[in-house]
Amino acid sequence: MTNPVAATFDLLGDRLTLTILRHAFVDHARRFTQWADRTAAPPAVLTARLAALVDAGVLVRAPRPGSADRYEYRLTDLGLATWEILVCVWSWQREWTAEWALLPELTHTGCGHRGPPVVMCRGCGRDVTAHDAEVELDRDALWRLTSGRRRSARATALTRGDARFDEIMEAIGDRWSAAVTGLALAGARRFSDFRAALGISPTTLTERLARLVDAGILQRPEPDGRDYRLTPRGRALFGVFAFLLAWSRRAHPETPDPGLSLRHKECGAVLVPALRCRGCAAVLGRRDVRFEPSATRPALDSPR
User: What predicted TM-score, i.e. pTM, was given to this entire model?
Assistant: First the structure.
């Protein structure tokens, strides 16, 4: 049986898929031609990504109003539930990449605060960072997460005049990178710790760790040492991973426990994350936020 976390990273850990979802939320894109114009993706590649999102229940293909022989793609309830993942990806890009100028501004319509929200525990209402959570996993879960098909983090279509998601793909763009970053968030530091947990070859592990160091997600306090520690840039990925795990449970409710979860240390419960406004401390729902324009993009509300 497919591991739900692995299936989630395979589906959403892809720059073109994130771009498709981004335009579905921000620009209300529904038609193939709209995504083709905005992404410059080859038609066959774009068709394959849209089909994968339909198969996963994120999009539904439906006749276009007033045209029985033309179709459009609409976000389902499961698709709408990806909005928190997209917000966390957006927040990370705004703070930690040079692409911030290409991104619209997130605004809480209730209080007018502009900027990234914070991650909170829905159970106890407290804010949560990587330091406040612990990862619970077993070896079988890691084997299922890292086995199966591979996808290069770099072998996807380019976008036209848009954020490319290049840098975050180093952390979530393939199963090995996602597993190494996740283990680092769980507290793994030494080369031997990563290798023992993953059963990965030294060559593959060395290559993934080097890529994450080059991306500024991990650092080596001693250049010749065997310790790898998360940078502030790496720790800031916590929200992305927290919401990916939460979405995987929603997308695959019928599957057994995947053996991988986040637990909030302070209240002791498995973390059910939510977003809180930094300005007024309100819990944010999808309808409570909107993306305001950059210098070149018109304001558009989130889909209702």
Answer: 0.88
Provide the phi-psi class of 48: left if phi over 0, else alpha when psi is between -120 and 50, else beta: alpha
Into how many domains does the chain fold? 1
Q: Which residue range forms the structural domain that includes residue 113?
A: 4-301
Average pLDDT, whole number, for the chain? 85
CB 239 within 8 A of CB 88: yes
Q: Which residue has the tokens 């999808």?
A: 286
Q: Residues, the chain, total?
A: 304
d(CA 28, CA 16): 16
Q: Residue 201 corresponds to which tokens in the numbers above?
A: 């070859």
* Confidence band, pLDDT 50/70/90 cuts, at residue 257: low
Non-local (6+) Cβ contacts of 220 within 8 A are 213, 227, 228, 229
pLDDT digits (tens, 9 = 90+) for 136-189: 776 666 656 666 544 444 445 445 555 568 889 989 988 888 889 988 988 889
Burial zone of 292 (CB within 10 Å; 0-12 exposed, 13-18 middle, 19+ buried): middle
Of 163, 39, 24, residue with least CA distance to 89: 163
Contact in structure between 294 and 103 (CB atoms under 8 Å):
yes
Under 8 Å between Cβ of 275 and 113: no
Find, among 73, 17, 80, the residue nearest to 46 by Cα. Answer: 17
Residue 266 DSSP SS3: coil
Instruction: Report the interhelical angle of 191-198 vs 175-185 (nearest 10°).
Output: 120
Quick one: tokens of 14?
Answer: 């892809």
Express each pLDDT in 57-108 by its tens digit.
999 999 988 777 789 999 999 999 999 999 999 999 988 988 777 778 899 9
